[in-house]
Each structure stands twice: as structure tokens, then as C-alpha cells.
Amino acid sequence: MFERILVPTDGSGPANAALEYAGAIAAAENLTVHILHVIDPDSGPDETDEPIADGREWAGETGSPVIDEVHTGEPREAILEYAATHDVDAIVMGTRGRRGVGRLLLGSVTEAVVRDAPVPVLVVRGAAEVRREYPLETIVVPIDGSSHADAALDEALSIAKELDATIHLLSVVDVAPVGIDERDDIRLEQFEQYAESVLDEGVKRAEQLGVDAERTVQHGSAHRRIRTYTDDVDADLVVMGTHGRRGLDRLLLGSVTERVLRTATTPVLTVHTDETE
């Protein structure tokens, strides 16, 4: 799946959930894990030993190469700098699934890293009801035809091919943001046709790689439909772009991704592109 992953930790419940999930991946894939504890000098006293000790104890159980370090600085900047200078190809982080977490390392910082990280970020909610199964068998990919969704699909297809997982391509026709009444049959039909064409292309790409793909179009609030569909198919992972297309083609992503991150009952892998639309 990856070769080198970074797991920032502060000893909190969400951070431990991310650490456990990273451990499951590491044990199966024998990848190198970087455990990073960031001390924020502006956040008051820091009990460094406990999170690092927990990380080292966990590391001894994975059988994978592990590097653990303590850095001082603003958490978001420290995480991104570490990822860039240590050539990691993914970051695994926990989140509380809500706003207002103040200066804790993980929470609002996770959203900032998701927005700015040049590598995929695997977000794990620290909640008992969250499904965290590995190896992956079922992957949901919401797509809308944007370059950001295309990048997410590329990543998902690569993972699915490697793990022999099934891809579920989901296109949500959410007409509310553009002010279309669902009784406006002509305009609604245009959105549905566009969604079908996006799915056709996604299935074609999957078939070219020999990846099994399911497809569906749903109507309604994008982030709610993504969560409901993910639960219905017992998905192990959701893969999403961090932005989506505005205007006529604004079917899915963007702020939707952030809402999914706060409510998803499975880990969410976010894929970022620098391209603006």
C-alpha cells in the first residue's frame, strides 16, 4: 500500500486509534513507520515520555522498521516539514470528528494537514463505532469528474490492484448547492447524465487495470450519501480528493470531504492536488 508512513502522536485517543491502524498496516505490509511527537511551545507543559513510550511499545509488536522522534514547533508545520524531509509517502492521523479542539496536536491540526500535505493523508476517527479493518477488501471512491477526484481514483485503483480489493464508484447528484429544484426534470437529467458519464469512465479505468468495480448514482446531500453508502456496503476505506469542481460540475467534493472526515465510520484517505479549477 505504502512504503514509508508518518504517524504523528500526542497520546490522545484519536492518536492512539491512528497508531493502532498504522500498526495493522505495518504488520501486513512490512513498511517503515515514522512516529512523530510534536511539542508545541505555545500550548503549555508537555508530558513527552508517555506518548513516546506508548509508541515504542507499539513499535515492538509490528515487526516493521520504526523511527520515532520528538520535535518542537507548531504542529502543522512540524508534521509537514517532517513528511517532506523524510520522504514519507503517506501520513496517518487521528481526528475527533468535531471542531473546537483547541491546541491539541490532533484535531484541527489534522484538517490543516489534510489541506496542505503533498502526500495522501489517512484519517482515522477515534470512536468505538469506526470500522478499522485491514487488509482492505472494499473501497468506496466518490467521483465527480474533477481533477481532484481523478487523483483520488488513481490512488484507490493502485491500492485496490495491489490488495485485490473491490472498488465502489459513487457519484452523488446533489442539486441543492446550485439551487435546482428536484422537480426541474430537464436540468436534473443533465446532472444525472453527467454523473453516469463520470462513472462510465471510472469503470473503464478499473477494467483496464483488472480491478473489480461496482457503480452507483445517488441523490441528496453528498456527505450523508457517502457515509450511508459506505456503511451499506461495509467498506473498509473511503478515498477522496481534498477539493472539487465548482460551477456546473459541482456534484461532490471540497467542503464535502471535510464533513466526511468528521462523520465517516471508516478510515478516509485524502488525496491532494495542487491544481486549481
Automatic annotation (TrEMBL):
<feature type="domain" description="UspA">
    <location>
        <begin position="1"/>
        <end position="125"/>
    </location>
</feature>
<dbReference type="Pfam" id="PF00582">
    <property type="entry name" value="Usp"/>
</dbReference>
<dbReference type="InterPro" id="IPR006016">
    <property type="entry name" value="UspA"/>
</dbReference>
<comment type="similarity">
    <text>Belongs to the universal stress protein A family.</text>
</comment>
<dbReference type="InterPro" id="IPR006015">
    <property type="entry name" value="Universal_stress_UspA"/>
</dbReference>
<feature type="domain" description="UspA">
    <location>
        <begin position="137"/>
        <end position="272"/>
    </location>
</feature>
<dbReference type="InterPro" id="IPR014729">
    <property type="entry name" value="Rossmann-like_a/b/a_fold"/>
</dbReference>
<protein>
    <submittedName>
        <fullName>UspA domain-containing protein</fullName>
    </submittedName>
</protein>
